Amino acid sequence: MPAHKIKGSNRWCEWLNLGADPATGRRIRRRVEAKTKRHAEMKAKALRERFERGENILDKPRTLGELLDDWLATIERGGKAHNTLLTYRNTCANHLKPRLGATAVPKLRARDIQKVFNEWADQFAPSTIQSFKTVLVAALDLAIEQDERTDNPAARIRIPTVKRAPGRSLSSDEVRAVLAQCAGHRYGLAVQLALMGLRRGEIPGLRWEDFDEVAGTLKIERQIQRANRELVAKAPKATSLSRPTPAACVRQKQSIGPLRPSRLQPVSNRRACTIAAIPRLPSCSPRGKISRRSPMCWAMPRQP
Q: Where are the alpha helices (DSSP H) in the chain?
């Protein structure tokens, strides 16, 4: 039916005939309204094009806030780490929902999203803006999978380039100097494990059954993380399973040697190892060099 003026009003409307429902056989009709005849015809044309592309225009569209809730519930069952989920929830609740949450998902446009991200670029670091975009793109991908959209407008927005500061690698002499300073220290074993390439959360997750003294290897089976103010054991990152533990710049026998006497010490002399007790240390890069990342602390705690 062509656009016509609504009786007793200055607005225009147009009815669209979209065929029949294959399940019930009933005719599918939708009505659009606008202030002018031209705008009513444009809205009707856009709605018909969305229907022909396969988008779901029959159900009431979700808002972006509702989509973000559904996306969080979906990835939570997908095995995401607790800290990652916490970061995603904070991003949605504190940033995306207040600015874009009330907008219907089919009505999201790249220029509107770009305007919001331009304002955020003046307030946050580029890496933070990148995390906002990552969450929004992933949520809208879910809307595409569920036939609510056919494109992802967030994927086309432009954000500031993330500039990474160049890291500094320790030389072999510096590594040996650190090992010499931590010899006999109560945190010395943790420092040596960090120089072998272990992450901060992986060190307290080690058990003696992970250490093969004959083969001279150390398996990384778990890591300790804080979840809801409690320390819990989690599976390590995928890269930990294939990452070589001994640093290339230190001989393997020198790296695993301190583990043997530590195992023979009385339990009373080995303090419980927690995340809070381990200082932030540099980790070993794939090439065997010790990369210094920020924030970090090289200072060792004093002996009591």
A: 37-53, 64-76, 82-91, 97-100, 110-121, 126-145, 172-181, 188-195, 238-242, 252-256, 259-264
Residue 184 has pLDDT above 50, yes or no: yes
Give the phi and the psi of residue 291 in degrees, each rounded to 5. Answer: -90, 130
Angle at 132 between CA 131 and CA 136, to 5 degrees: 115
Closest of 237, 238, 235, 258 to residue 246, by C-alpha: 258
Encode pLDDT of 41-53 as tens digits: 888 888 888 788 7
Question: What is the signed CA dihedral for 237, 239, 242, 247, rounded to 10 degrees?
Answer: -110
Per-residue DSSP letter, 58 = S
- Summarised one tens digit per residue, pLDDT across range 140-178 is 999 999 878 888 999 999 998 877 777 777 788 888 888
CATH of domain 64-156: 1.10.150.130
Would you kindly state where each structural domain of the chain is located, as residue ranges? 4-53, 64-156, 168-292
* 43: β partners: none
